[in-house]
Amino acid sequence: MISDKLTVIDESVDANTVESVHTACHERAQVARQSFGSTMNVYVHLAMDKDAVQWRKKRESGDLVGINDPTPYGYGRAQAMGCHVVFSNSARENKLEKLFRLGLRVLLGADVVHAWRNRAAIGEADIVWTHTESQYLAVAMVGVLLRKRIPMIGQTVWLMDSWDSLTSPKKMLIRWLVSRIDVLTFHSPENYARAKILFPGVNARLVKFGIPAEKKRAPVERPASAVVNILALGNDRHRDWKTLIEAVNGVPNFRLKILSGSVPRRIAKHGGNVEVTRARSNDELHRAFEEATVVCVPLKDNLHASGLTVIQEAILAGVPVVATNIGGLSTYFSADEIRYVPIGDATALRAAFDEIAREPARARARAARAQALMADPDDLGAQAYIRDHVTLSREILGR
Length: 399
Hints:
Helix content is 45%, strand content 14%. It is built from 17 helices and twelve strands. It has a six-stranded parallel β-sheet, with helices on both faces. Strands 9-8-7-10-11-12 form a six-stranded parallel β-sheet, sandwiched between helices. Strand 1 (40-45), helix 3 (52-61) and strand 2 form a beta-alpha-beta unit. The protein is globular, with a radius of gyration of 22 Å.
């Protein structure tokens, strides 16, 4: 998450660098089109509230806070890689239709009605890309109804974490539908490893997730200060707000700002130096990053690299990061780039904050190394993320 204001600052300060990045991306896209050969028709099936039209409107109005591509999750970048990309459409529905759709979604664990409404586009595509298991399970069901096997990349996020809580009938249904999917992709090696146990015959791949990384703000050395401004953000179900608030509670020189709508009030009220609010615009978010001494991503046990988006946003904003070492995050950034702490350890978290405040030069150096990993948009970021989808799709289709 970085604001439009920050983007303008970056362009004015380092316009030549930004221009060279765009030129390099264009040149790589030209090479990609030549090497990939014929145009591939890609249909991207997303959740009802994430279609391309709504995404663009929210982005243009400023309601889509953060570093966001002009197309949902950057999938439109595949156009420059020899693909014709079509996104799912969200149909208008009355209250009764919505109730029926959501009820079926709860029952089946997938939005089948939304996928069925897009069945024509699904059937015409060479391959289907999905962003979460809810979408690929729904598309697989549509394939069953159409009596057609649909070439598909099924990106899995939360399924491995929630598997043990599912009923036996739902597990049986999911196993059957997964058998109809060409490749399951995962952002974390921990998710990947669990999937290989649960679905031993599946074609599973690790595909690193990335956000647009072309623009960034160089890390600056924050002067040693008595006050430590800690910023935490995100709404993921695996945020460990309890441990974070415990770490700062009672420490007079710690100031914690949480930008989230998922913090239980019973937890937040115990921290007198804690502010819980939301970033309503990119400008608000940019100011929060500028004021932060450190960005903290506290996490509960998870398998899907929870917090990765926020970590990448903070790195691009040039802010040092403290994160819980869980979920496969170290696959993306090592302890040389991020200050990791053990899970559920408020004492270690407090010590990490003190260290960053006490040794600002060391914190800046760590932030600079983290940002260097995202310097090449074809290495870690949205460009590489989409490129991997295109390459994998060509492999599936034998092109």
